[in-house]
Amino acid sequence: MWQKFGVKDPVLRQNMFMADEVQYNLIHRICESERSTCLKASNETMIFAQTEGHNAWLWISKELAAEPKNKLLQELLEILKGNELPGISGDRATVEHFANVYSEANGLQFVPYMIMESYVCSEVRKPAHIEGILHLATRKHLETVAEFLAGFSEAAYGVKVEPSSQISAAESAIETGNLYLWLVDGHPVSMANIAHRSPRHARINAVYTPSAFRKKGYASAVVAELCSILISEGLDPMLYADLKNPDANKVYQNIGFVKSGQVADIKFK
Fold first, then answer.
1. Phi/psi of residue 152, each to 5°?
2. Residues linked to residue 116 through DSSP beta bridges, in sequence order
3. CA atoms within 13 A on the CB side of 172
């Protein structure tokens, strides 16, 4: 049996979910949105969470046996009838199983889109002798941030966009007070963002260094400094990294991030 729940629901504080919380941290953010659909199994062994227009996330407790799992998935399929999911994200075996049954029930196909590793850092190792300082992004950096966001779009997703199209997103990111730049002689050379704070973790994203400034330790420096800020707040920093980018994964591991479970993104078509 499935029921709706909100961001303060005990299901997000129970041990079964917290064992996978880094891997499924984005569920906290989804549950805060008014445009989200958040459902849990009544025995709290399964969570479905989706923001309208985006991939759904599906968590299933490792303690759940096959027969009750399949029953709950069939009930979920009935609830989702008439809804078109863009895709599904979560543990690879979990989402591949769901993708099979969802596609069969709806006459769809599915394709793997991305495999990410989730990471958490409880003790940061700051890189030594990196030139520059951390600086909170302000409106005077608007055009630079827009350029960085365009570069990030291409580097992370292979989507080319004009920097001018990113001005609004840059304004929004700067206004949160959570977007940081690494400056060398006053010039921005790298970027990272504190995307969200949940009860026990804070998620870092939009880590980007233009190609002209790479291999100098700037990304390591800006992320390490953000980790220090978050740890001082009593939160464990976490992030997701595309496994197709070994350099980024190495950077995160070198400054103290520990692997916490892979996440598969699957798209329906």
1. -65, -40
2. 242, 263
3. 7
Q: What is the pTM of this model?
A: 0.94
pLDDT at 125: 97
Q: pLDDT tens, 202-217?
A: 999 999 999 999 999 9
Q: What is the mean pLDDT of residues 6-34?
A: 97
Q: What is the pLDDT of residues 112-144, one digit of tens each?
A: 999 999 999 999 999 999 999 999 999 999 999
Contact between residue 8 and residue 199 where contact means Cβ atoms under 8 Å apart: no
> pLDDT tens for residues 224-268?
999 999 999 999 999 999 999 999 999 999 999 999 999 999 999
Residue 188 pairs in a beta bridge with: 183
Token match 């001082």: residue?
232
Whether 54 shows a pLDDT value over 90: the answer reads yes
Strands 36-41 and 2-4: antiparallel
Listed in order, strand segments (DSSP E) in 146-256 are: 179-184, 187-197, 201-208, 236-242
- pLDDT on residue 83: 87
Angle at 129 between CA 125 and CA 130, to 5 degrees: 85
Q: What are phi and psi of 169, to 5 degrees?
A: -65, -35
Helix, strand or coil for residue 28? helix
- In this structure, the strands spanning 110-120 and 236-242 are antiparallel
Report the candidate in 234, 19, 237 with the shortest Cα–Cα distance to residue 120: 237
List C-alpha distances in Å: 114 to 91, 123, 133, 241.
Answer: 12, 28, 33, 10
What tokens appear for 196 in the block?
Answer: 């969200």
Q: Are 58 and 263 in contact (CB under 8 A)?
A: no
Burial of 67 (0-12, 13-18, 19+ CB in 10 A): exposed
As given in the structure block, the two tokens for residue 175 are 């206004």
**Burial call 39-48: b when 16+ CB within 10 Å, e when fewer:** bbbeebbbbb
